[in-house]
Structure formats: structure tokens, C-alpha cells
Amino acid sequence: MSMVDKMRNTLQRVTGRGKRTTGRVAGDRDLEARGSMEKSGGDIKQAGENLKDALR
């Protein structure tokens, strides 16, 4: 299960980064902000997965 969660988190980070970059290029601050939040959420979830692995 942990590998699936890590892959989801990575996908969320990549998607967020893409939205953020697209928002910057297009000048859409709302899209840029949503992308940044999505990427940050993926980063936090990934850190939690890494912590769980370290405690095992």
C-alpha cells in the first residue's frame, strides 16, 4: 500500500507543478496558486509516507 501512496503523492506533486507553471506562463494567478497548493499537499503527504517508513 505504501508504494501506491507514494506514486499518488508523486503524481499529485507533478500535476501541481504543471498547473503552477501553466498559471505563471498564462498569467493566471488563480491556477498558479492552485498548482502551488496541490504540489505542497503532495510534498506533505510524501513526507508523511517517508516518516512512516522510517518508523518501521
The computed structural class is: mainly alpha
Overall average residue pLDDT: 93
Could you name the ranges where pLDDT drops below 50 across 5 or more consecutive residues?
none
Largest sheet: none
Overall geometry comes to elongated
Q: Please give the radius of gyration in angstroms.
A: 13 Å
Number of DSSP-assigned strands: 0
Order of helix and strand elements from N to C terminus = HH
Measured as a percent range, the helix fraction is over 70%
- Percent range for β-strand residues: under 5%
Counting structural domains, the number is 1
Counted by DSSP, the helix tally is: 2
Task: Walk me through the topology.
Elements: H1 2-26, H2 29-55
Helix pairs in contact: 1-2
Provide a descriptive summary of the structure in words.
It is a single chain. The chain has 56 residues and is mainly alpha-helical. The protein has one domain. The chain has two helices and no strands. The protein has helices at residues 2-26, 29-55. The longest helix is centred in the last third of the chain and has 27 residues, at 29-55. The mean pLDDT is 93.
